[in-house]
Design brief:
The protein has about 425 residues and is an alpha/beta fold. The protein has helices at about 55-70, 105-115, 165-175, 190-195, 200-205, 235-245, 250-260, 270-275, 295-325, 350-355, 375, 380-395, 415-430, and strands spanning about 5, 10-15, 20-25, 35-40, 45, 50, 75, 80-85, 90-100, 125-135, 140-145, 155-165, 180-185, 205-210, 215-220, 225-230, 280, 290-295, 335-340, 360-365, 370. The strands form 6 sheets. It has a 6-stranded mixed β-sheet, with helices on both faces. The protein has a 5-stranded mixed β-sheet with strand order 16-15-14-19-20, sandwiched between helices. The protein has a 4-stranded antiparallel β-sheet with strand order 9-12-10-11. Strand 5 (about 45) and strand 6 (about 50) form a beta hairpin.
Length: about 425
């Protein structure tokens, strides 16, 4: 008889645009995640974090959970749930409180953090995370833990992450319709930082780009603290759609062509002839005749798409850097860029990012895992494994937050011109 999952065992659930993934694991005393089971199912009924067909989402979740239960030989009753989407919004704020007896107590730290998180939010938004950055006691700045220090005033700096309450309610409802309890809800970008970033990288300054099917989550750390988080509402599926339009083929065929023949970098001159000889037959739409393209032609399409999306991130990082410098904060990303998520598997993605960002780039797979590593030691499992780490290190739910980004027009216009137009529009709004 299958055993019920014990309290020490954690289940992470990610309901993404491309796939639904559930991972059963336990976090060992040394922080290593022992993966006991996993289940994955193609995602249906959700797009860029928004549920479009509740019944379809429920079925996808059930299949992923059933797969994880079969592998782990357990009954899953509760999960830590990831949430993302263009509704996610973040900001930095501060809170100031007097120090009653000239020595900082835990109550005063909590009060300062509460004040920092008391910003008025737009209607419909709810607080999801309140993350401490640093503290100041009078003129003493950049304090990580002010407990016990003496002074008159305590100031707390915090990073706030929120989501639209209706989006959160719908996602939670889908999970509960599967007979599951939701223990915690975590922004997927934050979860990924727990599984792929080291403390050294956070201290030196690093940008994580979680490249998903429907969106890109961007997280920036400097001096060990989270300074910036955002969701760009475009991802790998938008590139697939553009490939489908460019080659006049189905989305399924375009996805296969992107994975098997695409690249984030155009071939150099000495490889151009070699690429030109590689022929790819592409099935037409609606029974129309197949067409033949060279790999070079396909790479020309995919490389422009990946390059333009990463340039949107690069432009935003420049704005962030200027803002941090103006506030006297450390702004250099000495540890560079870490790419994770399913999109990080694209050929030459690190080379493309290195050219655009002009800094060190690595592809981030989950760190500190054991057990069924052959199945989950891949960038696309960064979020779901990060959920286990997050749940282990944050026993109590963080305060809730909110967000909402204006909806964008379709990412596809007229072949390449349409894609460029949308990317420019996104860049101008960030």
């Amino acid at each position: 008889m299958a055993k019920i999952v014990e309290s020490k065992t954690i289940v992470g659930l990610e309901v993404g645009t491309s796939k639904v993934v559930a991972v059963v694991g336990e976090v060992l005393p040394d922080g290593v995640v022992n993966v006991l089971g996993y289940g994955s199912c193609p995602s249906k009924g959700i797009d860029k974090g928004s549920i479009t067909d509740l019944a379809a989402v429920v079925k996808s979740i059930q299949r992923a959970i059933e797969g994880a239960e079969a592998v782990a030989d357990c009954q899953i009753v509760s999960v830590t749930l990831a949430i993302t989407g263009e509704h996610i919004q973040s900001l930095n704020d501060s809170g100031l409180v007097p120090i009653a007896n000239n020595e900082v107590t835990q109550d005063e730290i909590d009060s300062a953090m509460h004040t920092a998180s008391s910003v008025k939010l737009p209607e419909g938004l709810s607080l999801l995370h309140v993350i401490p950055q640093e503290f100041a006691v009078d003129q003493q700045q950049n304090i990580k833990n002010p407990l016990g220090l003496q002074g008159v005033r305590l100031k707390a700096q915090a990073h706030l992450i929120g989501c639209h309450q209706a989006w959160l309610n719908n996602l939670q409802k889908a999970v509960e319709m599967c007979g599951l309890k939701v223990d915690q809800i975590v922004f997927s970008g934050l979860a990924s930082t727990y599984s792929v970033l080291s403390e050294d990288e956070k201290d030196l300054g690093v940008c994580l780009i979680d490249f998903g099917g429907g969106s890109m989550d961007i997280m920036v750390y400097t001096n060990g603290a989270l300074r910036y988080s955002k969701v760009v509402p475009y991802g790998g599926n938008d590139i697939t759609d553009f490939v489908a339009q460019s080659l006049t083929t189905s989305r399924q065929e375009a996805e296969s062509i992107k994975i098997n023949y695409g690249s984030a970098v155009n071939p150099s001159e000495d490889l151009a002839e070699h690429f030109a000889k590689k022929k790819v037959e592409v099935t037409g739409l609606g029974g129309s005749a197949s067409r033949v393209f060279t790999k070079a032609q396909i790479v020309d399409v995919t490389s422009k798409c990946y390059g333009d999306l990463l340039r949107v991130v690069q432009s935003e990082l420049e704005h962030l850097r200027r803002d941090l410098i103006s506030k006297g904060a450390k702004a250099d990303l000495i540890a560079g860029i870490v790419l994770t998520g399913g999109g990080a598997n694209m050929e030459d993605i690190a080379k493309c990012a290195t050219t655009i960002f002009g800094s060190h780039v690595r592809v981030g797979s989950p760190l500190n895992i054991t057990g069924l590593t052959d199945y989950v030691n891949k960038p696309q499992y960064a979020t779901v494994l990060g959920l286990l780490q997050y749940s282990h290190h944050n026993d109590e739910d963080n305060t809730p937050l909110i967000s909402s980004l204006t909806s964008e027009e379709s990412i596809l216009g007229s072949i390449w011109g349409g894609f460029k137009k949308i990317v420019k529009k996104v860049g101008s709004e960030f």
